[in-house]
């Protein structure tokens, strides 16, 4: 766990801080995430790419829960069970991430036009649902749905994934 | 939910930007429908956003708090099976380590994939620990657990290119057999676990190989332990 912590703490804390904007709260989230990982250790695949995805998924979910609680929003009940994380495409993301570096992921996000990136950021960094995004941006729900999808597809293209389709 | 409805929501689904019930409905649909091959990719890209946030340094105290919390939890359930059983077993294997429970946690993760669900009922494993050393200051410890599980933790490795990997070899009578791949070790560390019978093995070695591994070592070992006498 110590090895894993040393490897991932900056990324984990960076993500929690990006979501919460509050150092102590972000540290609480990181600690909780690693404790959850430790408690579920016997159920987690040893593959390291998957582990980093798993840790960051835990951090993300816990940070969003904390953010929504702080803002008095209804909890999203984002699951932090291993089985659910496995289902979220961690296998694919492991392959994706093994062949990419963080700069490429950042560049791909930056390549998405503002009007599509904003809904993605609200969904990811603020944990908003599509209905909440449409309210926050004063956009029709259908527009939010399509911009989320098109934005992700732009990232996919920028990352050079799945272009055969 | 039908295919059209799923397609309409697939971006929001990938982002997790739907109420739990809708996420679950779509997940169920995708599990039984081959019409949405992009769903997994979009979901993976959404999860890759975790790596888009800028890194930041937490306070050093966080690590201390975390390790203390893990220590406190493991102390309250020393005899528990499952996690506690694995950790308790591994903890006993590494009395020389400064932070044994922390290392045991990392190793338990590696072991977990192989042990999977059921270690209950068995006695705590006994083990052999083999130290591998290398010319560049790299080192590794291989733990051979009684039930055939082999765990390697390596440190100080030279990071390899993306199209290379470290590969572990068991050498018996001059014949190398692959024990598995450790990846390119981008930060110089590697953790791997496998199930293998090392009885009769004379040496363990780690070499740099093309990604996917080689049939036999093609480079000089970066880590080596020789003259082993393993039961």
In sequence order, what are the helices and strands of chain B, one letter per element?
A: HHHHHHEEEEEEEE
Number of helices of chain A: 9
- So, the CATH homologous superfamily of the largest domain in chain A? RNA polymerase sigma factor, region 2, helix turn helix motif
Number of domains of chain B: 3
* Overall number of structural domains of chain A: 2
Q: What is the helical fraction of chain A, as a range of percent?
A: over 70%
Q: Do you know the CATH architecture of the largest domain in chain B? A: Sandwich
Number of helices, where a helix is a run of at least 4 consecutive DSSP H or I residues of chain B: 6
Biggest interface, chains and residues, is: A-B, 85 and 70 residues
First-residue to last-residue Cα separation of chain A: 40 Å
Helix content of chain B: 25-40%
**Widest β-sheet, arrangement of strands of chain B:** 1-2-3-6
Residues in β-strands, percent of chain A: under 5%
H-E order of chain A: HHHHHHHHH
Q: For the report, how would you describe the main beta sheet of chain A?
A: none
Which CATH class of the largest domain in chain A is shown?
Mainly Alpha
Biggest sheet character of chain B: 4 strands, antiparallel
Description:
The complex is a heterodimer of chains A (165) and B (231). Chain A is built from 9 helices and no strands. Chain A is mainly α. Chain A has 2 domains: 1-99, Orthogonal Bundle (Rna Polymerase Sigma Factor, Chain: A); 101-165, Winged helix-like DNA-binding domain superfamily/Winged helix DNA-binding domain (Arc Repressor Mutant, subunit A), CATH 1.10.10.10. Chain B has helices spanning 3-15, 20-31, 38-48, 60-76, 83-93, 100-115; strands spanning 127-133, 139-145, 149-155, 164-172, 175-183, 190-195, 203-210, 223-225. In chain B, β4 (164-172) and β5 form a beta hairpin. In chain B, α5 crosses α6 (100-115). Chain B starts with a helix and ends in a 6-residue tail after the last strand. Classes of the chains: A mainly alpha (165), B alpha+beta (231). Chains A and B meet through α1, α2, α3, α5 and α6 of A and α1, α3, α4, α5 and α6 of B.
């Amino acid at each position: 766990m110590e090895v894993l912590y040393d490897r991932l703490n900056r990324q984990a804390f960076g993500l929690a801080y990006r979501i919460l904007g509050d150092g102590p709260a972000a540290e609480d989230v990181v600690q909780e995430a690693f404790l959850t990982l430790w408690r579920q250790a016997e159920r987690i695949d040893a593959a390291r790419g998957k582990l980093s995805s798993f840790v960051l998924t835990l951090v993300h979910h816990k940070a969003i829960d904390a953010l929504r609680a702080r803002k008095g929003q209804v909890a999203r009940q984002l699951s932090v069970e291993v089985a659910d994380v496995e289902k979220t495409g961690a296998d694919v993301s492991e392959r994706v991430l093994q062949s990419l570096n963080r700069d490429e992921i950042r560049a791909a996000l930056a390549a998405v036009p503002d009007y599509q990136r904003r809904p993605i950021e609200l969904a990811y960094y603020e944990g908003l649902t599509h209905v909440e995004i449409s309210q926050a941006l004063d956009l029709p729900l259908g527009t939010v749905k399509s911009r989320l999808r098109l934005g992700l597809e732009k990232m996919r293209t920028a990352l050079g994934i799945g272009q055969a389709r | 939910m039908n295919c059209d409805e799923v397609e309409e929501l697939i971006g929001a689904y990938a982002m997790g930007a739907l109420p739990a019930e809708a996420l679950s409905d779509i997940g169920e649909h995708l599990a039984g429908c081959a019409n949405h091959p992009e769903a997994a990719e979009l979901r993976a890209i959404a999860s890759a956003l975790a790596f888009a946030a800028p890194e930041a340094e937490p306070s050093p105290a966080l690590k201390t708090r975390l390790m203390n919390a893990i220590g406190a939890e493991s102390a309250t359930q020393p005899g528990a099976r499952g996690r506690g059983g694995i950790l308790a077993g591994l903890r006993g294997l590494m009395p020389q380590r400064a932070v044994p429970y922390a290392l045991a946690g990392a190793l338990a993760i590696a072991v977990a994939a192989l042990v999977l669900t059921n270690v209950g009922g068995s006695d705590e494993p006994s083990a052999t620990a083999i130290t591998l050393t290398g010319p560049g200051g790299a080192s590794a410890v291989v733990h051979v657990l009684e039930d055939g599980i082999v765990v390697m933790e390596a440190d100080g490795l030279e990071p390899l290119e993306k199209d290379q990997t470290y590969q572990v070899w068991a050498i018996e009578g001059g014949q190398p057999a692959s024990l598995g791949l450790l990846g390119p070790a981008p930060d110089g560390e590697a953790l791997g676990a496998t199930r293998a019978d090392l009885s009769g093995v004379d040496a363990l070695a780690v070499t740099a190989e093309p990604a996917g591994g080689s049939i036999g070592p093609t480079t000089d070992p970066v880590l080596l332990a020789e003259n082993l006498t393993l039961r």
